[in-house]
Amino acid sequence: MEVEKTRTPHSRGKRLVMLAIDKGGAGKSFFCVRLMEWLKEIGQRAVAFDPDFTNSTLTRFYPDAKFLDMRHSENLDHIIEMFQEEDLIVVDGVGAQQHVFLNWMEETRLLEIGREIDLSVTLVLIIEEDKDTVFQSGEAVRRVGTAADWLVVRNLKLCERTRIYDRSEARKELLRANAQEMVMQKLPEDLMHDIQSRSMTIDRILTEGSLFLLDRQRLVQYRRALSEQFSKVRSILIP
Questions:
Q1: What is the Cα–Cα distance from 228 to 218, expressed in whole angstroms?
Q2: Which of 68, 173, 202, 228 could form a disulfide with 49 if both were Cys (CB 3.0 to 4.6 A apart)?
Q3: Is residue 113 part of a domain?
Q4: HSE toward the beta carbon, residue 157, CA cutoff 13 A
């Protein structure tokens, strides 16, 4: 599936940002919601697709997301059709469905024909302190290689370090494929409860103004820190 890239990550064009990890509960939708908030913050238009037909978390927090029934792989073609209208598309992941995306990319030769519309693809890997996400990341990079841009997101919701990933062969292979890395810190438990129970984004709950002063400050700091992480890898998140 390796395709020689003919453009740099900084050149303008179109970009597809797609979650490429399928471990349930790893933080895929949480990442996508935060990414869409950051894109809005910097004034970047984007369309989001939610392919989870059993637990549409992205749609719950981001109602503008378009549902995508990936039980029929031909429906994934709608992603490419949308590039006639938009330059940036974000696709959330679904548990145990990573292979569907990768198979579709191979069957359609997406990474090759994408050059015709100046399309770059960023595959996002959410890493936790467990062997499953690390193994899946290694499998993905060995399958795709340098044909796509890679973003590794260290999700620290359970542990302050990712030692399994840091010491893994998967990380070595990803770095050889020029992967970029960012950190998603743990959100304080009480704030996560407020966000989840009320199905609100960070921006919305801050705008509503119902948080206790110190909780509001904690959430502002969290949003600022995450925005800094997104800005660090901006070159592979926007066209």
A1: 15
A2: 68
A3: yes
A4: 15
pLDDT in tens, the chain (239 residues): 544 444 444 446 999 999 988 877 778 888 999 999 999 999 999 999 988 766 667 888 888 899 887 777 778 888 889 999 999 999 998 665 667 888 888 888 888 888 787 999 999 999 999 899 999 999 999 999 999 999 999 999 888 889 999 999 999 999 999 999 999 999 888 888 888 888 888 888 898 878 889 999 999 999 999 999 999 999 999 99
How many other CB atoms sit within 10 Å of the CB of residue 111? 22
For residue 33, what is the domain's CATH number? 3.40.50.300
Give the total number of structural domains in the chain.
Answer: 1
Give the span between the Cα atoms of 132 and 22, in whole angstroms: 9
Burial label, 85 (beta-carbon count in 10 A; 0-12, 13-18, 19+): exposed
39-45 CB contacts, 8 Å cutoff, 24+ apart: 39/88, 39/90, 39/237, 39/238, 40/203, 41/203, 41/227, 42/238, 44/88, 44/238, 45/86, 45/87, 45/88
* Straight-line distance from the first to the last Cα atom of the chain, in angstroms, rounded to the nearest whole number: 22
147, β-bridge pairs: none
Residues 35 and 230: beta-carbon distance below 8 Å: yes
Residue 200: inside a domain = no
Range of the domain at 92: 14-186+226-236
198 within a domain of the structure (yes/no): no
For the stretch 143-175, what's the b/e string if a residue is b when 16 or more beta carbons lie within 10 angstroms of its beta carbon? bbbebbbbbbbbbbbeeeebebbeebebbebbe
